[in-house]
Amino acid sequence: MPLWTLFGLRKGKATTVWPKRGQENGQEGVRGMPRIEPQRCEDGCTQCAAVCPTEAIRVHADQTGAARLEVDYGRCIVCQLCVEACPTDAVTASSDWAFGTCNRSDLVLSGDFHIVPKVTEPESRHGFHRSLHIRHVDAGSCNGCESELQALNNPFYNLHRLGIFFTPSPRFADLLLVTGPVTYAMREPLQRAYEAMPEPRWVMAVGTCAVSGGVAGGGYACGNGLEGVLPVDLYLPGCPPNPAALIEALLMFLERAPQRVKGGRLVE
Amino acid sequence: MIGFELQSIEPDNVPVAIGQLIKNGGRMQMVYGWQPDDGHLELRYVASRGVNEDFLVLRCVPRGPLPSVAGISPLLGWHEREISDLFGLKFTGLPEPYRLVLHDGASPVMPPLDRAYPFDTPMPFEPTEGGMPVVDSADVQRLPFGPVRADVVESVELIFFYIGEHILHLHPQLFFKHRGMEKRFEGRSLAHGVILAERVSGVDSFAHGLCFCQAVECAAHCIVPPRALMLRSLLAELERLYNHLHYLGHLSHTTTLKVGEAEGKLLEERAKQINGRLTGSRFLRGLLIPGGLRCDLAPELWLSQALEDLRKDVAVYTAMLETTNSHLDRLITTGVLNRQVAYDQGATGPIDRASGLDWDLRRDHPYAAYGELPLTVPVRTSGDAHARAQIRIAEIDASIALIQRILLLLAAGPVRVDCSPTPHSEGLGWVESPRGSLFYGIHFDSGSTLSRVKIKSPSFSNWRVFPLTVHDSNMMDYAINEASFGLTVAGCDR
Known about the structure:
The structure holds 2 protein chains of 2 kinds. By secondary structure, chain A is α/β, with parallel strands linked by helices. Chain A has 2 domains: 33-96, Alpha-Beta Plaits, CATH 3.30.70; 132-266, Rossmann fold (3-Layer(aba) Sandwich), CATH 3.40.50. In chain A, 20% of the residues lie in helices and 19% in strands. The longest helix of chain A has 11 residues, at 243-253. The N and C termini of chain A lie far apart (48 Å). In chain B, helix 6 runs antiparallel to helix 13. Chain B has 2 domains: 1-101, NADH:ubiquinone oxidoreductase Nqo5 subunit (Beta Polymerase, domain 2); 182-458 and 472-486, Orthogonal Bundle (Cytochrome-c3 Hydrogenase, chain B). Chain B is an alpha+beta fold. Helices cover 39% and strands 16% of the residues of chain B. The longest helix of chain B has 29 residues, at 226-254. Chain B is globular, with a radius of gyration of 22 Å. Chain B has 16 helices and 15 strands. Chain B has helices at 14-23, 76-87, 181-184, 190-197, 205-220, 226-254, 258-279, 301-321, 325-331, 339-345, 350-354, 361-364, 385-409, 458-465, 475-485, 489-493; strands at residues 4-9, 27-34, 42-48, 55-60, 66-67, 91-92, 141-145, 157-163, 166-173, 288-289, 292-293, 426-433, 436-444, 450-456, 473-474. Classes of the chains: A alpha/beta, B alpha+beta. Chains A and B meet through helix 1, strand 6, helix 4 and helix 5 of A and helix 3, helix 4, helix 7 and helix 16 of B.
């Protein structure tokens, strides 16, 4: 055992200084949501919408009858099919993964898109700005989100240093973090975990499945994420969202970092 | 190239044919149902025979309840129960005549995999308790644990029957996470099919995507260009690498070796960052397509160097693990799975090889570029948690050696050809995923869209075997034993 202590000491500090300083968030080369600039589209082209497996990109006619693109990043699974299908440079690959938002509508790029209304009024989270306890519930995910959530506690991200902890019991939790499209069998255990939490309590939908159902949503066994199941206070789409995206979203929720996505666009 | 041989058999002959097959050294891999256009149900029994031989696929059209073969090939018991749940076919003489995939209380309007099932209709569900072992002693306590468990883990309910520290029986209630993924493939294009397959089990994304592609290529008789085959093997090994490193970190967590846990998970993070840098995805998603790869990769010098650095650190780490008594004491003789049980009940992958069964699809039924690569397949015979960990440690080494070899051999060339299966064709794909053997059975009907996709994941097999190592063990060893199996719930539940 002393050998392990020595081993650990010799290794030195593995934790990144990000997000406090620098850019070393561990996501070099990692792709995020595709960037879409409708003004570069060819007239009448709908190829990106045609290849999208989750209908994140849809085409509808505006008042003048012209085709308009609507992009819902809450449905995007980062498959990049639209990037490959685009004949012009209207859709491009990007590293925009910091997509945590408090409003579902902020994930939607387009003025008159069907917006899922936010169920709860924003409450003041004063008193929770420094520390947060999270209870995670897997409501039918593919285990990709869990893999990245587990990574948060590895020495590189070391979530504890930011005062954010996972707690075994919902009784001690401030935030219920849900992954997966909510299967028929997980719906009740999920709701019971929520009911067991003391107030004030918040809910975070992690991953596109939890936000909107993703590729698995619907069908005989799944719902469409947390829509109609629990009130959601924090959305983070991604398939899966990477650990840095999770950290950014949590800090944003604690009002320790700005919300970077507004109206479906990353604002620098 | 290895493929499959399709034979038709009469329903009444199934038990005899399968008994004969096993006697001749074959091993059943799965049985699944599918409905061609006209709506009748067909079954496919899939078996492996000798090394480098075609898989045998037995086609059977049931005309009523079928005789169960779970008594002859116990590993097929779960498959038959799944077919009962999802297609409504009855089996006579089934040793465990209960629901498996659908929870008690779920009442679909018709069997959900029936082609006529209205696509987006959720099943009505009234949670009720499923079948439980009958216990008639007041001393035996029952501990239901889950489906929401401590820590960030997947949902499963573990029901222990125990006296004091001693576990008499473990009943894992799985399939809380059943998403009906196989149904989601129906009517989808090939490009969407890969995207779906990659999301069946997140930490096996590449293996699932690859298996799907290989099944489609098998149906289409498509020859994938050599560079794509090499890159596929490379990526498959990168997936094994981060999974096995995670496994060692998690195993150290259960033996409370804190620094060992931190180091294992840090090494896993490095492997995932390599994935991200090379492919844009930490889970190696978005690369595969039937016919090759969606884009070429340029694994330049940095990859070779990064892996060599990783290998050195892994070697120091695993040597430390293998000489830490407190760690080894908890692993040795924990959760012993003997060879016969492993074989009969269908254990696969590192679990199988830790119990003395020398079988690896990469070597014995080569796919991608494995036929041209030297592959070391570690085998242990003690069947305990330590053997399972040792297999993974040895496989990490072998994976890195394979990747370095591929980097040397990689020649320029195209990475994609057109792949379009003919109507009414079917294909079988197989992949040795980090967790063991993965099979996809794929059927096309009149169009070029998918009509049926069957997924046999390694965790489906290993979850069946796992409780057999828990019965008659003790509570203190449970978490270690579970970690030593390296199971995923998503892969099993689908």
